[in-house]
Design goal:
alpha+beta; 2 domains; five-stranded mixed β-sheet
Length: about 180
């Protein structure tokens, strides 16, 4: 084999190794994209993702916010799901407890899972849930009716955010879906 052919073969092997390395990195990014995006949303509140907190720090401001509650149910889930109250007024930093009611209208026990968001999206990073039915799947027997609690507060840091000076109302929305069946 002449030196040109040997050199060309080595270049082809190097190119193949680089392409395989590049492909591996791309596959790794695809696999990691969902958890990384979820983490990004939780940290920044992007897309209306709320924060989870253990408790308030006790700081309560005089500024009040109206918190509205919305609910939806995916068509594959035969439940009625509604907020018990449509809205509440809370002071920023004040802990509040509200309830959503769910009724299973089917003849079978069904497990559901809730997704949630807050609008306006820019307020989501300041909306903190202490306790929420959405943290775990909910199982309802046929005809069962249950009130599900949400304990939350608005972080006092919201008052320092100039982008939120005009915000007087926040909407907390949930959508219930049938939980994926375990294989």
């Amino acid at each position: 084999m002449n030196t040109y052919a040997l050199s060309h073969k080595k270049n082809n092997i190097k190119t193949l190794i680089w392409l395989l390395l590049l492909l591996s990195v791309m596959v790794g990014l695809v696999v990691a994209s969902v958890p990384l995006y979820r983490l990004f949303c939780q940290v920044t509140g992007y897309g209306g993702t709320t924060q989870k907190a253990e408790s308030t720090d006790g700081t309560i401001l005089t500024r009040e916010m109206t918190i509205r509650f919305n609910s939806d149910v995916n068509s594959s889930l035969p439940w009625i799901f509604k907020p018990v109250q449509r809205s509440v007024k809370v002071k920023i930093g004040e802990e509040a407890l509200i309830f959503y009611r769910a009724v299973n209208n089917s003849r079978e026990t069904i497990t559901g899972t809730a997704t949630f968001n807050v609008t306006p999206f820019k307020a989501a990073q300041y909306f903190n849930k202490i306790e929420c039915f959405c943290f775990i799947e909910q199982t309802l027997a046929p005809g069962e009716e249950v009130d599900m609690p949400v304990t939350f507060f608005i972080d006092p840091e919201l008052a320092k955010d100039k982008r939120l000076e005009e915000v007087k109302e926040i909407t907390l929305s949930y959508t219930f879906f049938r939980a994926e069946k375990e294989e």
